Amino acid sequence: MPPDEEFQMQQAIEAAKQKIIELGKKMLQAGLVAGTWGNISALVREAGLVVITPSGMDYTCLQATDMVVLDLQGRPVEGQRRPSSEAPLHLAIYQARPDVGGIVHTHSEVATAFAVVRQPIPPVVEDAAMLVGGAVEVARYALPGTPELARQVVEALAQRSAVLMANHGLVGVGRSVEEAFTVCQVVEKCAKIYAWACTIGQPAVLPEQDVLMLSRLYRSAYGQPAK
C-alpha cells in the first residue's frame, strides 16, 4: 500500500475510534445502557476493518488505545484489549448488509421491555418509520456472544435498521455509526410513545406503503446535499 493511502487509512481508523468514544459517553448519559453493557462499532470501509469497543470497560474512561480493530473475519489487527463479546454479531451484520457502516447495541429500558415480552415495536411515529423502515422485530432468543444469536439477529433485522434481541436489548444499524446511534434513540422514543398510547386507547400503526415511502424519502432527500 502506498504511504499516502496507508496514512489516510490510519487517519480513518483513528477518527472512528474517537467517534465511538464520544458516542459511548452519550449512550451512557442518555440512559441507553447501564454500567459497561452495550457495545458500539464502526466499519472503516476503505480498509475493510471494524473498530469496536473493548469488553467490560467503563465508557467514561475509554481511550483510543482501548479500541480493538478487527478484520471482517474477526481476526485482531490492532489493540491490546479483548473485543466486545458481541463482536461476532457485529461482524455478521456487516457481512450480511454492505450498506451498514455502524452498529450500536443498547439496553434501553422501554425497548428492552418489548424484547422481554417478545413483542415487535410497530411504526407509530414518522421518524421511526423513516429510520427503521418498518416494525422493530424480535430476534429469537439465543445466548449472548454466540453464532446462533448472530444468525437470529441478521435474519430478524433483514433490510431494516433496528432489531430487538429477545430478553436482551436493541441493535441499531446505520450508514454511519452516528446514524446507528440515532436509530437507537428514536426506537426508544417510539417504544415509549407506543407503550403510553396503549394505555390510552388503540394505537394507529402507519400503513406499510407509507412507511416504505417515508424510509425512501429519508434515504434520498432528507437533510442537506453534500457539498
TrEMBL record:
Classification via InterPro entries: Aldolase_class_II_sugar_metab, Aldolase_II/adducin_N, Aldolase_II/adducin_N_sf
Cell membrane as a keyword?
Answer: no
* Residues of the Class II aldolase/adducin N-terminal domain: 18-195
Q: Name one GO molecular function term.
A: aldehyde-lyase activity
Lineage: superkingdom: Bacteria
| Entries under Pfam families matching the protein | Aldolase_II
One GO cellular component this record assigns the protein to is: cytosol
Question: What processes does the entry annotate via GO biological process terms?
Answer: pentose catabolic process
Keyword tags = Lyase, Metal-binding
Under which name does UniProt file this protein? Class II aldolase/adducin family protein
